[in-house]
């Protein structure tokens, strides 16, 4: 079921025909989920409606600050008397009945611009992903019984005008399992949308691509979920996709993804430089204040000076200990004579 340079044309009875058509170039476009996500997020912002709070909300009362010197904060306070409201803080977002912080405005930047080239790139990437069976299955679609992905059907199905015939066609080509999944996924929407004519939600199903509408749109429009992430194009629409647009489809950066084979090929190995050998590794820099070996390189007399300083310190310490002992003995003798 993997995508190939050519795809087989299946008949209306679901049997594979003897003819085949070249795979449209759009199915060979690079799959870029980051570009698709960026474009869809930007386009979804264009459906938003501006909203804001009332510009007078939280400011309907007369209030002024009491100033300093009254052991209260300098927030504006309601004037008057005779009620608990007088003297209470007002206007601030930390006050009861006050305005919100940074009140929302209708002139916020709601929409986002996205250039046409990027939108076309995202559309090509999404269509190319619909031709990769593992991605389609990971998306949750039931394509286990579908012979190929994308599945090209004979152009005679464009004259299908009855929904029952369309359902029979989906069963024959193994795509009706995805419709059954859509029917089973219909649930009530969570949130306020159920009050706004958006009561139910359901998954998406097959995507039908046709060239001429000879009744096929009326046949498929009442089938749940016929609008989704993997396609069932007709033979004529496949040819039109291949030749019907002046837009240059995105190309893969690598025609052969086997990078190790490219590097180890005779053509590449014959022109690359030989590996360099015998180069000494870079010595690690040592801190002379912490490394005695590094200090000896910089100052050969450092070890002698350090040894002399250690001996002098030991001599000084021994002399101080001897002097302290003599002082202690003299003091004890002095106390004994007085007593």
From TrEMBL:
All copies of the Large ribosomal subunit protein uL4 C-terminal domain together span 246-319
Q: Name one Pfam family in it.
A: Ribosomal_L4
User: Record's superkingdom?
Assistant: Eukaryota
Output one GO MF annotation. Answer: structural constituent of ribosome
| Gene3D superfamilies listed in its UniProt record | 3.40.1370.10
In terms of PANTHER family, this protein maps to: 60S RIBOSOMAL PROTEIN L4 (PTHR19431)
* Protein's name in the database: Large ribosomal subunit protein uL4 C-terminal domain-containing protein
Q: Which organism is this protein's natural source?
A: Emiliania huxleyi (strain CCMP1516)
């Amino acid at each position: 079921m993997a995508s190939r340079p050519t795809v087989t044309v299946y008949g209306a009875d679901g049997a594979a025909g003897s003819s085949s058509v070249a795979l449209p170039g759009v199915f060979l476009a690079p799959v870029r989920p980051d570009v698709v996500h960026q474009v869809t997020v930007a386009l979804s912002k264009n459906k938003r409606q501006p909203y804001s709070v009332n510009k007078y909300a939280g400011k309907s009362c007369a209030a002024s600050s009491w100033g300093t010197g009254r052991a209260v904060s300098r927030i504006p306070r309601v004037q008057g008397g005779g009620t608990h409201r007088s003297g209470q803080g007002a206007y601030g977002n930390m006050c009861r009945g006050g305005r919100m912080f940074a009140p929302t405005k209708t002139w916020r930047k709601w929409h986002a611009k996205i250039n046409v080239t990027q939108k076309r790139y995202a559309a090509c990437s999404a269509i190319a992903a619909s031709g990769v069976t593992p991605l389609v299955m990971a998306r949750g679609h039931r394509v286990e019984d579908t012979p190929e992905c994308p599945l090209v059907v004979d152009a005679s199905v464009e004259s299908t005008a009855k929904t029952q015939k369309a359902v029979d066609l989906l069963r024959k080509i193994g795509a009706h399992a995805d419709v059954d999944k859509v029917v089973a996924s219909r649930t009530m929407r969570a949130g306020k949308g159920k009050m706004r004519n958006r009561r139910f939600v359901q998954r998406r199903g097959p995507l039908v691509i046709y060239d001429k509408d000879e009744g096929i749109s009326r046949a498929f429009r009442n089938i749940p979920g016929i609008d989704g992430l993997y396609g069932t194009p007709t033979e004529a629409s496949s040819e039109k996709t291949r030749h019907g647009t002046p837009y240059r489809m995105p190309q893969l950066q690598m025609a052969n993804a086997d990078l190790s084979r490219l590097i180890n090929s005779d053509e590449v190995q014959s022109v690359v430089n030989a590996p360099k050998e015998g180069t000494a590794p870079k010595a690690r820099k040592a801190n002379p204040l912490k490394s005695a070996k590094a200090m000896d390189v910089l100052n050969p007399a450092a070890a002698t000076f350090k040894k002399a300083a250690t001996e002098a310190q030991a001599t000084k310490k021994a002399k101080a200990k001897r002097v302290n002992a003599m002082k202690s003995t003299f003091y004890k003798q002095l106390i004994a004579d007085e007593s």
